[in-house]
Amino acid sequence: MRGRRKLIVVSNRGPVTFTSDEKGERVLGRGGGGLVTALRSLISHHDVTWIASAMSPEDHEVAEEVDGEAIAQTAADGSVYRLRLVAHDPQAYDLYYNVVANPVLWFVQHYLWGLADAPDVDAGIHNAWTQGYTAVNRRFAEVVVSELERQPGAAVFLHDYHHYLTPGFIRHSVPDATISHFVHVPWSQPDYWRVLPEPIRRAVHEGLLASDVVSFHTERWARNFLLSCEELAGAEVDMESGEARLDGRITLVRVRPISVDPEEFDALAASESVRAAEAAIQEGRPEKLIVRVDRTDPSKNIVRGFRAFELYLEAHPEMHGRVGMLVCLDPSRQDIPEYSEYLGAIQRAARAVNDRFRQDEWLPVDLRIGDNFPQAIAAYKQFDVLLVNAIFDGMNLVAKEAPLVNERNGVLVLSENTGAHEELGHWAITVNPFDIAGQAEALHEALELPLDERRARLEAIKRHVREHDIAAWIETQLDDLEAAASRSGTRLSV
C-alpha cells in the first residue's frame, strides 16, 4: 500500500464552495465539475493542500477572514485537508477566465475556430493575456511557492488549461520543485496553435515544459503536444520515450486516461432522488429513447446532433411516435458571448425538429436545460442509445458514466474525436462529428442492433470502466510524480 504523501493540488475550481442561505448564514457546498470529483479520493489517502480560486462572494469573504491562508476542511469520509482560496483581483480574473482561458485557449484546443472570420487577436486579447492570464497564473505560483516553503518536498499537482504558465513561475522560485501538470482537454496540432501570436503560444509550451511530468488522456493528444513542443518551442523531442528536453530540463509526457468511481455511480443510481427522476422519465418515455447529457458548450456539437436526428426521422417515418430524444443540458459559461449564442442555437435547432415532426402526444426532442444531476443519472439508466458526438473532447466522462449504470442494454454512439474513443471505440458505434448523415445512419444502426450484440457491447464497456477506475488513475499520477522526483534526485515528503 502506498504511503501518505504531501501533495499540493492546484485547480481553478476547488472541492467546495461557500455560499450564504436566506438567513445570511454561511453554507458549504460541493465544488462543481468532474475534475473535482475525480481528485476527491486524493484527500482520503494523502496529506492534501488544495489551492483554488475564490469563486463566490462568500469564498472571497472566507479568504479575507484568514488573510489568504489555508483553512482546515473535513471531507465527506471524515478526511481532513487544507483548503487555500485565492482571491484574485476581479478584473484580472475576468480577463483570465472570460477572455483568455475559455474563449481563446478552449477554442484553440477544441478546434472551434473556422479561421476565415475568427479569431481577431486584437489589443484586448493581448492585454487580457498580460493583465489577466499571466497575472493570475503568477498569483497561483506565488501561493504554491509559499506552501512549498511551509512543506518542503511536497509534490505540486497542477490541472488543466487555466494554469499553463504556473509551472514556469514556480520553477523560477523553487528550482528543485516536483511539478506535475495534467491537461484534461485535447491538444491541437502545431499549425492550429499558430493562430495565436508567437509570444503567447511559446509561453504556453515553455510554461508546461517547466513541469517534470505533463500528462494527457490519450496518445493522440500527447503526440500532438510533443510535436508542438518541437515545432513551436524548439524542444528536443523523443516520441518513443515520451520526453521533451528544453534548456537542459527533461519533461516526461505521459498518457493517463481518467476514469470514474464505479461505486459512487452504483450508489447514485440506487438513490431516492435518481429513482424519482427515473420514474418521471419512464412515465413519459417512448418505446425507444435516445439520450444525450452535456454542457451547453460549442465543442459538444449539440446542434449537429439535432440535425442528425432530424435526418433519421425523415428517413424512418415508421419510427414516428416510437422514438424520442431526451436531452439534459447544463448551462455553461453564459457570461461568454459565444456560449450564450450557442445556447440559443441549441434551442432553435430543437424547436425546428419538434415543429416539423411533432404529432398528438409525441414530442421528438425533449430538451431540458438546467443543473439537475439526479435527472442526468436517471437518463443514463434509461437510454437505448447514448449520443456522444463531440467535435473534440479531452476524454468525455459521460461515455464512461452512462453505460456503467444503464439498465436497457443501451448502445453508445461515440465521436471518433473524443478521448474516450481510444478506450471504448471497439464497443461503440463510431461517428465523425461533422457527418450528420453518418450520425443519422449510426442512430438507426444502434436502434436496430440485435439484443445479444447490444448486451455484449454494454457489458464490455462496464467491465473496462470497472477495471480501469479513478483509483487506478490516481495511482498512475503518483507513480509518475515519484518517478520524476527520483530522476531529479528529489525526495518527496511523507
What does this structure look like?
The structure is a single chain. The chain is of the alpha/beta class. It folds into three domains: 81 residues, no CATH class; 188 residues, Glycogen Phosphorylase B (Rossmann fold, 3-Layer(aba) Sandwich); 207 residues, 3-Layer(aba) Sandwich (Rossmann fold). It is 48% helix and 19% strand. The protein is built from 18 helices and 18 strands. The strands form three sheets. Strands 5-6-4-1-7-8-9-12-11-10 form a ten-stranded mixed β-sheet, with helices on both faces. It is globular, with a radius of gyration of 23 Å. The model has no long low-confidence stretch (mean pLDDT 94).
What tags apply to this protein structure?
494 residues; alpha/beta; Rossmann fold; ten-stranded mixed beta sheet; six-stranded parallel beta sheet; 18 helices
What is this structure's SSE topology?
Layout: E1 6-10, E2 16-20, E3 26-30, H1 34-45, E4 47-53, H2 57-65, E5 71-74, E6 80-86, H3 90-109, H4 123-150, E7 155-159, H5 166-173, E8 178-182, H6 190-193, H7 198-208, E9 213-216, H8 219-233, E10 236-238, E11 243-246, E12 249-255, H9 262-270, H10 272-284, E13 288-295, H11 302-315, E14 323-330, H12 337-357, E15 365-369, H13 373-382, E16 385-388, H14 398-405, E17 411-415, H15 420-424, E18 429-431, H16 436-448, H17 451-467, H18 470-488
Parallel strand pairs: 1-4, 1-7, 4-6, 7-8, 8-9, 9-12, 13-14, 13-16, 14-15, 16-17, 17-18
Antiparallel strand pairs: 2-3, 5-6, 10-11, 11-12
Helix pairs in contact: 3-4, 4-5, 7-8, 10-13, 11-12, 11-16, 13-14, 14-17
